[in-house]
TrEMBL record:
One of its GO terms (molecular function) is metal ion binding. Keywords: Hydrolase, Metal-binding. A divalent metal cation 2 binds at H132, H155. Signal peptide: none annotated. This is TatD-related deoxyribonuclease. Belongs to the metallo-dependent hydrolases superfamily. TatD-type hydrolase family. It comes from Caballeronia telluris. The keyword Metal-binding applies. CDD domains: TatD_DNAse.
Amino acid sequence: MWIDTHCHLDASEFDADRDDVAASARRAGVSRIVIPGVERANFATVRDLAHCIDGGAYALGIHPLFTPRAQDDDLRVLRETIAASLDDPRFVGIGEIGLDYFVPTLDDARQQFFYDEQLKIAREFDLPVICHVRKSQDKVLKGLRVNGVKTGIAHAFNGSFQQAEAFIAHGMHLGFGGNLTFERARQIRRLAQQLPLAAIVLETDAPDIAPSWRYKERNAPDQVPGIAEVLAQLRGIDEAALSLGTTANAHAALPRLGLLSS
């Protein structure tokens, strides 16, 4: 059993064959797919999609890359939608939220405002967060500390060992996916190999961050077992142990995920 803790299955890249993609993942042993929201316009989409596929789950949030077109009132809608989703067993947390300092055109104050306000919502409802941390690890962690949010996932982690240890000490889990399958990704591979297994969850970020054997092609959740195979080799453990460990870790990072019936 594998869990894809981060998959944008609602993306337009899957419009032609979304059901087949979900079915292929299920056949590959991926029993859970977490679909994060990215803006107000797709809150209902990710919720409905999570209910349409076997093992689907969803989070709700405003992604930093979508803050340029987000309105302040979107935060009110987000909070109300989350409140209305608390009884939904497929709702697992707040995300994808965070900060991005890779894209130079983003307004720092604007994305920081949306990140902080969403952390306040997470604290209010005692929910985990799925964080975007691209070139922003320290500031994302600072926000978690200031707002007292201690559960969730630092998605597509690519920081230093010191930063990784700080996230782990705070209570967060770290998401690893297709990047670790590239031999040239030495830092990510060292992190995946040497960090405590209890800190690691698997993800695809599909349709993005495809593994090496799908370089420049569309990624999909059925690639989790292949990514896991590489991770198991890097760590020198068998895949069964990795499956048990990363599944338990995903449930710890997103506790509501563990309450979903098969």
